[in-house]
Write a structure and sequence with these properties.
mainly alpha; MetI-like fold; two-stranded antiparallel sheet; 1% strand; flat
Length: 316
C-alpha cells in the first residue's frame, strides 16, 4: 500500500471517529435535561434529607449535629407508631380490595358478549382523573355525620344499623378514607389488568377450550399465570402508594386532620414535624424510616406474589 492510500485510510478512520464522537455527544445532550432536572428536584433533596436526619434545625437557626437523637425521638414517640398502625390498616383496607376487584372488572370488560365496552372503560377510569378536592367533597357528603347522609341511610334502612359519626369515630374515619382510596384507584388497576389480559394470545384459550377447560379453569391456569407481571407491578405500586397516604385523610378531615390521632398517617406525621413544628431533623428521620418501611413491605409483597399463579407439577 502506497503512502497516498495510507493517508486516505487514516483520514477515513479519523472522520469515522469524529462522527462517532459527535453522535455520542449529541446523545448525551438529548438526555442531559432529564438528569439535570432529576438531580435538582430528586437526587439533591434526597441527599439533603439524609444529611438533615442527623441535624437539629428549625429552618432558620444554624444547624447543629444531633447524631441519632432524631431517630430515637421518632421511634419512641407513641404518635409515630399510631401513624404506622393507621397507615397499614387503611392501606390494607383500601389497597387489597381494589386489586381483587380490579382483576374481576378487567376480566368482565374483556368478555366478548359485553356491549358498550368503551363507555364502561372510560367510566371506570374517570375517578383516577378526578380532582382530589372534588373526591373529598363528594365523600364528605356521602359519609357525613348527619343521619340523613347516604352512608347512614343505607345502614339504617337496608341493614337496620344505627347511624355512624363517620368523621368523628376512629373506624368510621378509616373506613371512609379507605373507600375513598378504593374508589379512586380501582379503575387505574383495572385498566392495567385489562391491558395484560388483552396481551394474552387467543390461541391458548382456543387450545384450552378444545381440551375441555371451562371458564374457571382457563382463568386459573391461563389468565392468572400470564397476568403475573402485571399483578406484581400493581402490588408494588399500590404498596408504595398506600405507605405514602396523605391527600385523602388531609382533604377529607380538613383542619382537624393533624389533630386527630386516629387518622394520622406516616406522611402526615412527617409533614406535621416539618411544616407545623419546624423540626426538619425529625421529619427527615421519619422520611428515612418511611423509606425503610416501604422497602420492607414492598419486598414482602413481591415475595408473596412470586409464587402467585405458578404452575404446580403433576405427580406421575
Amino acid at each position: 500500500m502506497d503512502s497516498s492510500s495510507k493517508k486516505v485510510s487514516i483520514f477515513k478512520r479519523r472522520k469515522f471517529r469524529s462522527e462517532e464522537k459527535k453522535d455520542m455527544i449529541s446523545g448525551y445532550l438529548y438526555i442531559a435535561p432529564f438528569f439535570i432536572i432529576f438531580a435538582l428536584i430528586g437526587l439533591y433533596p434526597a441527599l439533603f434529607s439524609i444529611y438533615l436526619a442527623f441535624q437539629k434545625w428549625n429552618g432558620f437557626s444554624p444547624m447543629t449535629f444531633n447524631g441519632l437523637a432524631n431517630f430515637e425521638l421518632v421511634l419512641t414517640d407513641p404518635l409515630f407508631w399510631k401513624s404506622v398502625y393507621n397507615t397499614i390498616v387503611m392501606g390494607i383496607m383500601g389497597t387489597a380490595p381494589q386489586l381483587i376487584v380490579g382483576l374481576i372488572l378487567a376480566y368482565l370488560l374483556n368478555m366478548a358478549f359485553l356491549k358498550f365496552k368503551s363507555y364502561f372503560r372510560i367510566t371506570i377510569f374517570m375517578p383516577y382523573l378526578t380532582s382530589m378536592v372534588a373526591v373529598a367533597l363528594i365523600f364528605s357528603v356521602l359519609f357525613s355525620n348527619h343521619e340523613s347522609s347516604l352512608a347512614n341511610y343505607v345502614l339504617t334502612n337496608f341493614f337496620g344499623l344505627d347511624p355512624i359519626a363517620w368523621a368523628a369515630s376512629e373506624w368510621g374515619t378509616k373506613i371512609a378514607i379507605s373507600l375513598m382510596v378504593f374508589w379512586r384507584w380501582v379503575g387505574y388497576n383495572t385498566i392495567i389488568y385489562l391491558a395484560g389480559i388483552q396481551s394474552i394470545p387467543n390461541d391458548l384459550y382456543e387450545a384450552a377450550t378444545i381440551d375441555g377447560a371451562n371458564r374457571i379453569q382457563q382463568l386459573r391456569y391461563i389468565t392468572i399465570p400470564m397476568m403475573k407481571p402485571f399483578i406484581i407491578l400493581t402490588v408494588f405500586t399500590s404498596t408504595v402508594g398506600a405507605m405514602q397516604l396523605f391527600s385523602e385523610p388531609t382533604v377529607f378531615l380538613g383542619a382537624d386532620a393533624f389533630t386527630r390521632d386516629e387518622a394520622m398517617t406516616i406522611v402526615m406525621y412527617l409533614y406535621r414535624d416539618a411544616f407545623r413544628l419546624q423540626s426538619f431533623g425529625t421529619a427527615s428521620a421519619t422520611a428515612i424510616i418511611l423509606l425503610i418501611l416501604i422497602t420492607i413491605f414492598a419486598v414482602i409483597n413481591l415475595r408473596l406474589t412470586q409464587g402467585f399463579g405458578k404452575k404446580r407439577g403433576r405427580s406421575k
